[in-house]
Amino acid sequence: MRLMRISLDGQRALVTGGARGIGAATAGALRACGAEVIVVDRLGDAPVDVADPQALEDAFARAGALDVVVANAGATLFRRLDEMVDEDWRRLLDINLTGAFHTVRLAARVMKPRRRGAIVLAASTNSFDGEADLAAYNATKAGLLGILRTASNELGPWGIRVNAVCPGLIRTDLTAGHFAQPQLLKDYCRHIPLGRGGAPEEVALAIVFLASPLASYITGATLLVDGGQMAAKFGIWDERMGRFAGDHWELADPPSTTA
Ligand SMILES: NC(=O)c1ccc[n+]([C@@H]2O[C@H](COP(=O)([O-])OP(=O)(O)OC[C@H]3O[C@@H](n4cnc5c(N)ncnc54)[C@H](O)[C@@H]3O)[C@@H](O)[C@H]2O)c1
Prior knowledge:
8 strands; 259 residues; Rossmann fold
């Protein structure tokens, strides 16, 4: 059995959307495992919009050989289905879906000649459900699973693995609105068995695992990182069993610490 530690020493990784949130945590975690990390983001000194194919291609050309690519850049948009205008729909698809497709395509072109590599997509629990007011977001996140499965199928023979994380509610700028509304957060967390939102680092660790040699026989997989939310059809927390302590649910009577 190999030693159970993740080493990415000598590897080069590129993370889109790596300036903040889950992407920044992922860049940090990859570096902590020894990888050299290139961040591609519309924020920062060398802004790159993943919705701009030429800018993305230039960024990959500058990056050179890559062992790991994380297609994480994403945005969201709350609109009623019947109030969505075409421009909003197109912009979100350009970033979340076409941007990710271009990222995977460029990663494949860089990795195929080397016959190795790992690609991780940031999908979502919204890849599987129909959360209201998020038609464009949900469509992009469901669409990512089509890219995931096709890419893992096509690229497997070249030794390239392609996987996706599917985060639930994670505390980042993207979800700041949820965390700023105590009642909404309380009700949302009723549906999360672990009783709380997640931290970006908790998703980053799942991404690093999937990108690492520890996941050497995993490709085409979706890994939920959602505190159990998708397993909980009707939710679990209510006032009969616990209380909401600011940002998480806890049992009313914590188990005794004495045996
Ligand atoms: N936070 C959550 O609860 C959650 C849940 C499920 C999935 N996700 C997904 O995880 C990914 C990261 O989300 P986050 O919560 O860290 O969001 P975030 O808003 O904190 O960070 C997103 C990053 O992507 C960058 N970005 C956005 N649009 C870009 C573009 N057009 N070109 C280049 N960079 C761009 C931003 O500048 C930012 O650095 C997204 O794909 C998101 O859909 C997040």
